[in-house]
């Protein structure tokens, strides 16, 4: 395991993103975190903003237990609140193929929010197979499998404070 982005760098960047988002949404924003990977990012991002932020969560699965996508997307938990007429910001840990967010944006657009944008901590642009417009990006990273700060490998390592590259598949 090798540290790719340290805790300090993550926290610094999240503060910058929070300040930018706060400026863009002076009347408040409805944050939608994608379970479970985005939970740490969402918690820190929300506290980096001084505007009103409502929190909601949605569950989507597109990955199996390993490092590759199953290519299949399904909603595993829906939102608690309606997004109709709201300024909505989807908060995601990482955009990889784009399949998950491309699908989710279609679903949410049908519910007629006033505005709909995406904040993603990490972006692997080389891997994109479906178009996704990400308005706020923390870091662009190369095509490597990362864990920590919410990101998992087979549900492990989410609680690491740094973002690390998993170089070998653990036994
Ligand atoms: P996409 O649909 O391929 O864009 O995949 C997005 C989802 O795949 C993210 O929400 C993550 O849960 C997962 N994912 C993609 N790349 C990584 C990675 O490097 N580490 C951990 N999870 C990843
Ligand atoms: Mg995820």
Secondary-structure blueprint:
Elements: E1 2-5, H1 7-24, E2 29-35, H2 39-47, E3 53-63, E4 69-77, E5 87-95, H3 99-109, E6 115-123, E7 136-140, E8 146-147, E9 163-165
Walk me through what this model shows.
Strand 5 (87-95), helix 3 (99-109) and strand 6 form a beta-alpha-beta unit. The protein has 3 helices and 9 strands. The chain is α/β, with parallel strands linked by helices. The mean pLDDT is 94. The strands form 2 sheets. The protein has a 6-stranded mixed beta sheet with strand order 4-3-2-5-6-7, sandwiched between helices. The two termini are 14 Å apart. The structure holds inosinic acid and magnesium ion. Inosinic acid (IMP) binds at residues 37, 62-63, 69, 92-100, 145-147, 151.
Keywords:
globular, 3 helices, single chain, 22% helix, binds magnesium ion, binds inosinic acid, alpha/beta, Rossmann fold, six-stranded mixed beta sheet, 171 residues
In short:
With 171 residues, the protein is α/β, with parallel strands linked by helices. The protein has helices spanning 7-24, 39-47, 99-109, and strands spanning 2-5, 29-35, 53-63, 69-77, 87-95, 115-123, 136-140, 146-147, 163-165.
Number of strands: 9
Classify the secondary structure makeup into a structural class.
alpha/beta
- Order of secondary-structure elements: EHEHEEEHEEEE
Instruction: Give a list of the ligands.
Output: inosinic acid, magnesium ion
CATH topology call: Rossmann fold
Task: Name the poorly predicted regions.
Answer: none
In the CATH classification, which architecture applies? Answer: 3-Layer(aba) Sandwich
Q: Walk across the major sheet and give the strand order.
A: 4-3-2-5-6-7
Broad shape? globular
Overall tally of domains: 1
Number of helices: 3
CATH class type:
Alpha Beta
Q: Give the helix level as a range of percent.
A: 10-25%
Main beta-sheet strand count, sense and barrel state:
6 strands, mixed
């Amino acid at each position: 395991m090798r540290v790719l982005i340290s805790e300090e760098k993550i926290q610094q960047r999240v503060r910058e993103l929070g300040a930018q988002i706060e400026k863009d949404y002076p009347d408040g924003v409805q944050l939608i975190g994608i379970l479970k990977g985005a939970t740490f990012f969402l918690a820190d991002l929300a506290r980096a903003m001084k505007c009103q932020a409502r929190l909601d969560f949605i569950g989507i699965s597109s990955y199996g237990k390993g490092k590759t996508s199953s290519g299949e997307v399904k909603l595993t938990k829906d939102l608690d609140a309606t997004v109709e007429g709201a300024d909505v910001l989807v908060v995601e840990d990482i955009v990889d193929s784009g399949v998950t967010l491309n699908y989710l944006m279609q679903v949410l657009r049908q519910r007629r929010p006033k505005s709909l944008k995406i904040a993603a901590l990490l972006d692997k642009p080389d891997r994109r197979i479906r178009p996704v417009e990400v308005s706020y990006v923390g870091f662009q990273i190369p095509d490597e499998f990362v864990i920590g700060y919410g990101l998992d490998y087979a549900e492990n390592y989410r609680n690491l404070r740094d973002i690390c590259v998993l170089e070998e598949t653990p036994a």
